[in-house]
Amino acid sequence: MKIKWSPTWQLANELQGIVLIGFSLLIFKLMVTGEVVRLVAPKMVPLLYITMALLFLLGFFRLLNSNLKGADCDCDVCDENASLMNLTFSYLLFFSPLFLFFTQQDMSINKSILPNTQFEHGQTFSVSQVNNEAANDEDMIAIEDDNYLQTMDMINTNLDNLVGKEIMITGFIHREESFTDKQAVIARYVMTHCIADLGLYGYLIEGEVNELQNEQWYVIKGKLEKKEYEGQLMPVIKVEKVEVTEEPEEEYLYALDY
Amino acid sequence: MEEKEYAMSIPTRVKDILIFGLFLAMMYLFFFGDIYVANKWNFVLPDQIKTIFVLFLGIMLEALPFLLLGAIASSVINLYISEEYIARIMPKNPFAAIGVALIAAVITPVCECAIIPVVRRLIQKGIPVHIGVVLLMGAPILNFIVFGSTYYAFQNNLSIAYGRFIICILASIIVSIIVYMLFSKQKVLKTHREDLMAVVPINENKGDSKWKGILHHTCHEFFTIGKYFIIGAVFASVAQVYLKDSYIMQAGESSIEGTAVMMGLAYVLSLCSEADAFVAASFSKMFTPEAIIGFLVFGPILDFKNTFVMMASFRIKFVLLFILIVTIVVFILSLVSGLFLA
What we know:
The complex is a heterodimer. Chain A is built from seven helices and eight strands, in the order βαααααβααββββββ. By secondary structure, chain A is an alpha/beta fold. Helix content of chain B is 73%, strand content 1%. Chain B contains 14 helices and one strand. In chain B, helix 2 (47-80) runs parallel beside helix 5, helix 4 packs parallel to helix 6 and helix 7 packs across helix 8 (158-183). The interface between A and B is large, with 96 and 100 residues. Chain A: The chain crosses the membrane at residues 15-32, 44-64, 84-102.
């Protein structure tokens, strides 16, 4: 009996087509579930839309034209033959992230494992100097999502002038092992580019903080003070009033948004 | 019929069933993977593995657009920029050529993953190796986006922002000259099948459609680079989780140790050149300025993921020597810069 044979490069081309479509579906799913902003900063989203469309089209093109019909390819790169073993290994590399991704319920992770998510490494964020003076005139510093990092920077640079001011901040409670019962940190996660550079930025709070639970979100009002912690002078909030609050929709702050 | 003509082949019917099956499996996973597979098989990843995977996904998503861009750029260069054109615009004097390459590095806004296939293609088209090296080192740092983010991150200490670019230019010139002396007569590219011009085309279907050529080529390039990128990204995310910074931080005080540690960190973290300024800023109170400069210059030129990408394009010997030279040069220059910054 006569069997029709195809070269392995054609198989490889078709596998590539499927992988490309798979990656575009991966981006699509992240976009639909909204989880994309937990992995990369929002400014990447338009780029990812373009990438998704390109990968999708490229994938179908590759899949349906796997015999290279009509292509002007002077370099012969597109028809390298490889053994089946070789193919299996290299395409397992591409298929396994797809498989892992599609079988996960969500993209939530244990952030304490990440390298930069410890308070003592996250408090210095010397980004901008916008309106250093503006907040000086007000009686209370209200820290919102959209001015979080600017305010933090402002407070760090003008700490001496700001001691004794009222401050209001929203964030979650984070504790380090070295903290006493009266200490905690009110913090936010800040992403610059992608989840690999996620960092923890917050303020040390002192007072009756025993009751506050780790990872729970609170609105905290208090007075700004200046204290030394582990050899570094830093702002400390003396807690006066605490309110439980919901976790905001946008869990992270994005450093490059403003 | 032409069967049996191929050295390595697979029955067409088997291939078609395989591909069709895989496609259906992919669709199934896409629609139902998280509901059925995860629940029925109780397929849950342990905490650490999942964190590594999510980190990997983040790094990959961030690089994907740029990898694709690099692949497209490389294939367009392959088809449209001829060897003669390059020979015409490149000055004959090797040192003048370095200057031209630095200007080219400023106007090519691609990051470290995207530049490697482009440089490989250019070297193949006849650009001298030491010029390619300037592009390889300069393009990720010397562009407006990176300057913007560095400027932004170090507004309180602008000398670091300027220092980063000056050191990068100096380092690329020095490395380029060393490479010129060592490699100007040698082959540095890995021999891919396509480089052997003697090979008879296996495929007789080929026509003259340029856009089809570009698309196929883009796919091919994407997968050649992508394979190494995935390995590198996995390494980087594993390192992020397991190499906690506890012992690293103690080196911050000393200038030499601090610089070495920061450079190592830059290599391991594999951050994109646009993002690393902000990470560096968060270290700026713990480390000396020269260590920060080392981090900012070394990271975009060399890191885990792009070492693997380079190995896809260049010979191992060249890659290793290049890493060695860049490390030494950047290290010394960073230490020297400390004299001016302190």
